[in-house]
Amino acid sequence: MGTPETSELFMVGRKQYFLDLTEPGNDAMGGMSLATAIAKLDYGLRHLPELAAVPAPTALGVLATRDDWTLDLEFDDAVPDGRSLLALTPPERVDPMQLDPITAVDDPSFSARLKANPNLPAFLKEAL
C-alpha cells in the first residue's frame, strides 16, 4: 500500500481515488506520478511539430552506428538494418494532437469515436 508521500489523488468520473503508481528506478519513468506522466504526454502531443524537427538520439541510433551490432530477424529478409532505418526521411508534416481524457467515463466523445472506428465489429457498435 502506498504512503502519503507517494500517493496522489485522482478523479474518475466524480469519484476520488488514491493512486500509488510511483516506483523508484533509474529509468525515465522511475518515481513519476500519474499526473506528471499525463502532463508530459499532453505536452509532447501538443508540441509534436517542434519535437519532430529535433533529431533525438535513440538506442537504435546508437546501436546502428556500431559495426559489432546487427539486427538479424530470420523470418523476414526484407527487414532493413539499423543504418538503413536511420536514413529514412522523416515525415514532411507532423500535426499537433490533443490528449483525450484517460478514462472513458470522463470523455464525453468516447462512445461516438469508438462507434466511428472502422475496425470495430458491428455487433460491438450496436452494443454501445
> Helix count?
6
Q: How much strand?
A: 5-15%
Largest sheet: 2 strands, antiparallel
List segments where confidence is low: pLDDT < 50 over at least 5 consecutive residues.
Answer: none
Protein architecture, described:
With 128 residues, this protein is mainly alpha-helical. It has one domain (8-119). It has helices at residues 34-46, 48-52, 59-64, 82-86, 110-115, 122-127, and strands at residues 8-12, 15-19. Strands 1-2 form a two-stranded antiparallel sheet. Strand 1 (8-12) and strand 2 form a beta hairpin. The longest helix has 13 residues, at 34-46. The chain is extended and about 55 Å long.
Task: Offer a concise description of the structure.
This protein has 128 residues and is mainly alpha-helical. It is 32% helix and 8% strand. It is extended.
Fold blueprint:
Layout: E1 8-12, E2 15-19, H1 34-46, H2 48-52, H3 59-64, H4 82-86, H5 110-115, H6 122-127
Describe this protein with a few key phrases.
single chain, mainly alpha, two-stranded antiparallel ribbon, 32% helix, extended
